[in-house]
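User: Last request for today: this protein with adenosine-5'-diphosphate, please.
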Amino acid sequence: MSVAGTEGTLDHLLKNLGRSGTSDRFRLVCLLSLEGSVLKCSPATLERAGLAPSDVVGRPFWTTMWWDASPDAGEEVRHAVLRAAEGGFVRCDVPSRVEKNAPHTVLLDLTVARLRGEDGAFTCLLVEARDVSEGRLAEEAIARLTAESETQRRLYEAIVSSTPDFVYVFDRDHRFVFANDALLKMWGKTREEALGKNCLELGYEPWHAEMHDREIEETVSSRRAIRGEVPFNGTGGRRIYEYIFVPVVAASGEVELITGTTRDVTDRKTTEEELRRVNQDLEQFAYSASHDLKEPLRTVKIYSELLVARYRERLDGKALDFLDNVRTGADRMEALVRDLLAYTQTSRLEKPGEPADAMAALQAALANLEAAITESGGVVEAGALPYVTVHATQLQSLFQNLIGNALKYRRPEAAPVVSISARRQDSFWLFCVADNGIGIQPEFREQIFGLFKRLHTKDEYSGTGIGLAICKRIVERYHGRIWVGSEADEGCRFYFTLPG
Ligand code: ADP
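Assistant: Here's the final one, the structure of the complex with adenosine-5'-diphosphate:
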């Protein structure tokens, strides 16, 4: 078969076309006879396929390259070549291994075209193929993503239309551009009637509409979410709603829309209010009870002491023992009443106006603990301490309880060493009161902060089980946290945070 006259041009073409250009993707360029046997193949194609010209020249094209990637690939190539020889131009996708032991198949976009010789008659076929796997993968990925985002859209739609909350969207002119079914139902309007209107046009009271107008503007200018609460008198009586407006920022950086969600929180608010009232009542009761118990308790103590002082001679040993038990019981009850009163009083103090000096509070606590420090032979050391926005007496009470415990729960063989330190943690200060005492097993670290929770009997260590509950109450009142880290026999580290 002759391709005379066109040889030079074709050789040049083959040389250049066979190169892969900047990418290392496979490119195949071959000249075939009209019967489909290989006349020439671009050197770059052969090199990449790991074939020599003698492996391919003179053989049917569909038996030469690595078409065995799929069972039908060779057959498909044969059809394409023969169809092109008859009818002109054929294009198809064929999987191929590209080279002999290639681990992956690639997808080749194969075109076969008839070429004319100088006399105008068709003389040969030009086959060209490019690896288009990546493009196809990208197309597949796009198709998958589109399908996923469609599923997501449907999912959002289902959520938004089934939630009892009101979900809506404002445009920059404060008009509703979207309202979910729950909101439309509350308005008693169809989507067509409602959309495009602002709050006032939808029958909101003027103060309510103005408030939302202000908040929409604030959402736009601050580009931050705005939350609020609003009472609403509807057909079901007075309800309380909580809402949040969130800006939707476009690619240009401008706030384009404002989404809103409103939730009916009437039931939650009512329950919270009831709980607060019950708590207040209980606290009042505990306060009065512990306060009123002091008086009869004093009477019991005074009269049992009088009995011993005045009638000691007339009482036998057993009666004196009994009276001793009465006095110990009364002492213990006095301690309980005192601590309980302190516990109920933690929430009675007004919030402080001025920050308190933690070092001064610590000094005051240490002065009260002087006897315990001397008696235990303990050492209390402190680093620099900050000012915190807490009532000075409550800060003192915190230190007193924690250091008092550190001295009390000491190991018999070692004098107590207590260290107090503080470091900044965001807008809070993190305090640490560390000791070298008996420690607390991990499983008890939560429960010791409960009221009356003790890990020891009163004969082992005196106490009422109220001290740490007071500490917790104080710290939480200022939105702080208190916890303990400890390994048994390695002492305790009590941590608490307070606003600075
Ligand atoms: P109380 O000391 O009056 O028993 P607290 O509420 O102060 O009550 O403490 C609760 C319990 O926590 C204590 O009974 C004790 O078992 C444990 N505890 C508290 N502080 C320490 C400490 N520094 N080391 C070991 N155990 C402690």
